[in-house]
Amino acid sequence: MTDFVKPVLVLIGGGAIAQMIPLALGPMLTRLYTPEQFGHYTLFAAIAVNCSVVACWRYEYALPLVADEGKARDLMALCQRVLIVTTLASCPLAWWLGAQGRLEAWAWLPPMVAFAGAVQWLTLWATRAKRFPALAGARLLQYGGGALAQAAAGASSLVHGLIVGPVLAAAATLIALRHPAPLGGWLALWRVPRTAWQAAAREHRSFPLLNTPHAFAGALQDTLTVVLLIWWSGDAAAGFWGLALRYLKAPATLVGGAVSQVLYPRLAGSDAATSLRVVRQVMLVLALAVAPLVMALMLFGPALFELLFGPRWREAGELSRALAPYIGAHFVASPLSVVTMAWERQGWALRLALAGQVMFIGALAVGLQIGGLQGGAWAVSTAMVAYFAWYFWSLATFEAPRAA
After folding, report:
1. Angle at which helices 272-309 and 235-248 pack, to 10 degrees?
2. Considering only CA atoms, which of 142, 137, 160, 138 is closest in space to residue 150?
3. Which one in 120, 148, 309, 317 has a CA-CA gap of 20 to 30 Å to 303?
């Protein structure tokens, strides 16, 4: 496990600093921005993620599976073209949202899609090359830089500073990841023959056909969640939810991102027995690691949020208590999304994920109707703990994952 643990620790080290910065600045941000402004940002971020997570149609996730440099070049050229198409397609959406009266904020949507999509693409390129220190630095720049920019914008009384900050940080991260320029540079990729990148598209068509709907539906869950919260309880409720999840999911973002970036190429190059054993070990270690966090949130969540963020944010702490079981299960599941890609079980994963998303939205809607914001949170935890329990059992008992 040494060749697995060392790069994970490198990524966690860089990611830990990246997460510490926004977490440390959180108490300042909650005093610079209102819950309503956080609600507006939460909705923008959900829609931006919905677009950027599929900006390259998930073709970038085929890069770690391709050993041949020529085929990797063709895949990179394909990703470059698809990203441009997706960014252009987001412009009418931004215009429509602006027509609803929020043009100043929503005008940032296409740049965010372009920058965040490109960062995800080049992250997979760096993962293929096992440039783990560079990935750690990129995480620091993206997350830490975004929080610093949000704080600076808030101190300058910029109304949409919560939105502008992450956009600028994503742009800076893209600049950092593009050096050294891959495969001879961007113009060289643009000169790749059409027949070559079209062949790459056909060879890896399972990624847009199966994994893209999976990823888009997963992000759509967050978008629909925010819409439901605003519809039932207003912008402030979305702000409470957004702040709570910003902190509660930070450990999953830190650890899960690092583990998945190392786990994916490890599974892709292992035999069936080794691959299954590694997955079981990862699940067990993550479950043991997250248990103390869940207990702390259940016992002290409301008091901690009020102490850190001020009395008007206590309701976010009540949400953290209700969501704690769900957060624990999500922490374990977060890095495991790459398992079904490495094992070529994307069709099964898509069906299961869609079922889970229906359970999540359905539970939230019923809970909101019966018990308001807190009722919605407890309903989500109940439904999703049952869902993730089935998911973990299924992964641990697969009989024949793909051998390298």
Report:
1. 130
2. 160
3. 148
The CA distance from 203 to 185, in Å, is 24
Instruction: Choose the weakest-confidence range: 58-67, 97-106, 115-124, 334-343.
Output: 97-106
CA nearest to 174, candidates 239, 126, 133:
126
Other beta carbons less than 10 A from residue 128's beta carbon: 21
Over residues 124-157, the pLDDT tens digits come to: 998 888 887 888 888 889 988 999 999 999 888 7
How far the first Cα of the chain sits from its last, in Å, is 18
User: Within a 10 A sphere around the Cβ of 280, how many other Cβ atoms?
Assistant: 13
Q: List Cβ neighbours of 140 (8 Å cut-off, separation of 6 or more).
A: 14, 15, 17, 18
- Of 123, 116, 142, whose CA–CA distance to 45 is shortest? 116
How far, in Å, are 120, 156, 341 from residue 149 at the CA level? 20, 11, 35
At which residue do the structure tokens 């079922």 appear?
355
Contact 173, 142 (CB under 8 A): yes
Distances from the Cα of 228 to the Cα of 40, 44, 219, 234, angstroms: 13, 14, 15, 9
Which tokens belong to 334? Answer: 């977060």
